[in-house]
Design goal:
Shape of chain A: globular
Largest sheet of chain B: 2 strands, antiparallel
CATH topology of the largest domain in chain A: Four Helix Bundle (Hemerythrin (Met), subunit A)
Largest sheet of chain A: none
Oligomer: heterodimer
Number of helices of chain B: 20
Helix content of chain B: over 70%
CATH superfamily of the largest domain in chain A: NADH-ubiquinone/plastoquinone oxidoreductase chain 6, subunit NuoJ
Strand content of chain B: under 5%
Shape of chain B: globular
Distance between the termini of chain A: 61 Å
Strand content of chain A: under 5%
Number of strands of chain B: 2
Radius of gyration of chain A: 20 Å
CATH architecture of the largest domain in chain A: Up-down Bundle
Largest interface: A-B, 32 and 46 residues
């Protein structure tokens, strides 16, 4: 069981990194979007391995479903996508900075003693997530409410920005 | 949970919805601005009714104390002044006037929440509430410049949010909690060098919040966004958004990371020196007054960060005082610019020639605000600089004060150049520059405030000292 999880993690991780690189490197923006969907899918897979069933389902529904469809629609409704994404003048420097950041984060993550739990939660996480969000004494009610106002602001902003001049 | 403690924010969001609904039924859109400004009295009254209380609610996520109440009042006054100065601008739109005011009000609610939450997830969501409203407001005009500004702001803001979340994830991973006070207890000993994850987390937090306050090296969005955005929104960005960034930095760094304050103090000291120097030097070369003021606000962020570098009650109360003085001064300058560019339809400094003859009062007000930005008595800017320099000296940051004084001298050059153009050069025409009643009201409020803080700073100073007391028990 343990080795099975380890093997599937490494497969998922390899797919995730490879598809993320493809998103950045591919010139064809439509293919990049499809690889983004693959990347989202492998993140959902990692959630499954970690026993976070609700997060995995939400990841598939929201990212793989809604957001991917939205991105692809946006690309198809945009003119002049054939030209692809232009190559930036700072590609080399950006690559160096990204590499530096990668090395730093890797060193930090490896050298730190994290507050990690070692056992996978046995029961479905949906009800405990609901408890954490909405329970009166310790729940995250405040950020939930602010998020509601945030969505209102986002909807108003979107309507304003797509109006006819 | 005690919902009454959240009454200022709830009533402010309610006001935003009322304004949108009124926009649907009202024929005379001018009333919307009146409702928005008059409605701000309600959250203001709730804030004053809460004054002096020190409580938390929502499982400790929302804190009502002198600090959050000070910022509540601060953002309400800023929102009122920005709405007053937007009236002329907004009346040019055919539709969506109510949405403009509603977005200003919603972002003010988000800023108030940024100053009063003490939990990382709430802080992040409140910050996004502010940011999303401001992205839409920046691109509100839908002309190429405004759209470009909105797009740049959105993209860079999204990157900054990602960096901020990365930092929060580091802190959460190390401490296992998102509550600021529990983070403070869970921080392992040994300083930053023994905890690379905490160091990386702090650097990423500084970067994420640094975008909000526009410090070097996260300042590159400022000139383009400030130039393209509707001018009242530029003013709003330069004072309120920046103040919200400083409020959340003070809250997070003192409440959660106070144990390692020596280490982040020096980060802010170095950033302050670079930020003020870059802002001032680049401002000299600007010919567009909005771009000049954009670089000037970067420089002012450098002075403000001296209050973060001086990790003491004196430093943070001086920072709050500087924020108050700077906000009134900068808003005053922007309101004068709104009034002038309404008429002459240009933001070039050269086109301001002879403005003292065409609009004597506007030119006087603009000159007064620019003098306050330099820090010459009898203005609020002078008092603010005295206090913040004093705090830095007390904290043994004399080198930083010397750099700041040199920078002040540099800044006098480009601020006074505008005054010279307005007073000494001949006007292209003698036509008067009129201004509306709401602009005049907002401008006189700012100028009187700047003068009052310049000659009698004690009242605000007492409030700011009480506000930062919570960080230094």
């Amino acid at each position: 069981m343990e080795t099975g999880i380890a093997i599937s993690f490494w497969i998922l991780a390899a797919v995730m990194v490879a598809s993320a690189l493809a998103v950045v490197w591919l010139r064809d923006i439509f293919r990049a979007a499809l690889f983004l969907v693959l990347c989202f899918f492998s993140v959902a897979g990692v959630f499954v391995i970690l026993g976070a069933d609700f997060l995995a389902a939400a990841q598939v529904l929201i990212y793989v479903g809604a957001i991917a469809v939205l991105i692809i629609f946006a690309i198809m409704l945009t003119r002049e996508t054939q030209r692809g994404s232009p190559s930036g003048r700072f590609r080399f420097i950006a690559f160096l900075v990204g590499l530096l950041f990668l090395v730093t984060v890797t060193l930090v993550v490896v050298s730190t003693d994290w507050h990690a739990i070692t056992e996978i939660p046995a029961e479905p996480t949906t009800s405990s997530l609901a408890q954490a969000l909405f329970s009166g004494e310790s729940g995250f009610v405040l950020p939930f409410e602010i998020a509601a106002v945030l969505l209102l602001a986002a909807i108003i902003g979107a309507i304003v920005l797509v109006r006819e001049r | 949970m005690n919902l009454y403690l959240l009454a200022p924010e709830i009533s402010l969001c309610g006001l935003a919805i009322v304004v949108i609904l009124l926009d649907l039924v009202l024929k005379r859109k001018g009333i919307l601005a009146v409702v928005s400004v008059a409605g701000l009295i309600v959250p203001g009254a709730f804030t004053l009714a809460l004054w002096g209380r020190e409580e938390t609610t929502f499982a400790g996520m929302l804190a009502i104390d002198q600090f959050s109440l000070f910022f509540n009042l601060f953002f309400l006054v800023m929102a009122a002044l920005v709405i007053l100065s937007s009236v002329d601008y907004v009346s040019k739109f055919r539709a969506f006037q109510g949405e403009y005011y509603a977005l200003v009000l919603l972002s003010a609610a988000g800023m108030m929440l940024m100053a009063s939450t003490r939990e990382l997830i709430s802080i992040y969501v409140a910050l996004e509430l502010v940011a999303i409203s401001l992205y839409a407001l920046t691109g509100f005009l839908k002309d190429p410049k405004s759209s470009e500004a909105g797009m740049k702001y959105l993209l860079l803001g999204a990157v900054a949010s990602a960096v901020l979340l990365y930092g929060m994830a580091m802190v959460f991973g190390l401490t296992g909690t998102t509550h600021l006070e529990e983070i403070a207890q869970a921080i392992p000993g040994g300083g930053l060098l023994a905890n690379p994850a905490l160091l990386l987390g702090i650097v990423l937090l500084v970067a994420g919040f640094g975008f909000k306050i526009a410090t070097v090296p996260f300042q590159m969005w400022v000139p383009d966004v400030y130039e393209g955005a509707p001018t009242p929104i530029t003013a709003y960005l330069s004072v309120a958004s920046k103040a919200a960034g400083f409020a959340v930095i003070l809250r997070v760094f003192y409440e959660a990371l106070g144990a390692v304050s020596l280490d982040w103090g020096i980060i802010f000291a170095i950033l302050a020196a670079i930020t003020m120097t870059l802002g001032n030097v680049v401002a000299i070369a600007q010919t567009n007054i909005k771009r000049m003021l954009a670089y000037s606000t970067i420089a002012q962020a450098g002075y403000l960060m001296m209050g973060l570098a001086a990790v003491s009650a004196l430093g943070s109360s001086a920072l709050l005082f500087f924020l108050g003085a700077y906000a009134l001064t900068n808003l005053g300058a922007f309101i004068a610019i709104i009034a002038i560019s309404n008429k002459i339809d240009s933001d070039l400094i050269g086109d301001y020639s002879g403005m003292a003859r065409r609009a004597p009062l506007l030119a006087l007000a603009l000159a007064f605000c620019l003098i306050s930005l330099i820090g010459i008595p009898p203005t609020a800017g002078f008092m603010a600089k005295i206090y913040i320099f004093n705090a830095a000296v007390q904290y043994d940051l004399t080198w930083l004060v010397i750099i700041a004084v040199v920078n002040t001298a540099i800044s006098a050059y480009y601020y006074l150049r505008v005054v010279k153009v307005m007073y000494l050069e001949a006007p292209p025409s003698e036509e008067a520059v009129p201004s509306s009643a709401s602009l005049r009201a907002a401008l006189s409020f700012c100028c009187l405030g700047v003068l009052l803080l310049g000659v009698y700073p004690w009242a605000l100073l007492r409030i700011t000292q009480a506000a930062v007391d919570i960080f230094f028990p």
